[in-house]
Amino acid sequence: MVGNLDSLMRQVLSFSVEVMDRMHQFPYVAFVVKDTAVVSRAVNEVYQNLDPTAHCDAVAIRRAQMALETGDLSECTLISLFEPTVLSFDVALWASIHQF
Q1: Residues 2-15: pLDDT tens digits?
Q2: Tens of pLDDT, residues 63-72
């Protein structure tokens, strides 16, 4: 995955610009990646869903678990434009993600 990191970061930045343009909000975005494939991506949905736990990292993890049909994301990496919150960091650890 390290060789693909530049490409992934370009995707994260491109998605961030899209979020700013389309949603007019600060671009808190996160991707969950397995091998070199993006499994899920998300933005903060705290205000849209009236859910204080809907941080971008947590939402991306939930979506990745659903897409892969497993709670074990130990083979995945969490890529975020910003440092994960304590809540998101804990969710990542509970999902067995150890690469950030």
Answers
A1: 557 788 888 988 99
A2: 999 999 999 9
For every residue of 3-69, which 3-state class applies, written as one string? HHHHHHHHHHHHHHHHHHHHHCCCCCEEEEEECCEEEEEEECCCCCCCCCCCCHHHHHHHHHHHHHC
Q: Which of 99, 97, 91 is nearest to 55 (CA)?
A: 91
pTM over cut 0.85: yes
The contacts of residue 35 (CB under 8 Å, 6+ apart) are 1, 75
Closest CA to 43 of 71, 66, 24, 70: 24
The H or E element that residue 95 is part of is none
Element (H, E) at 94: helix 86-94
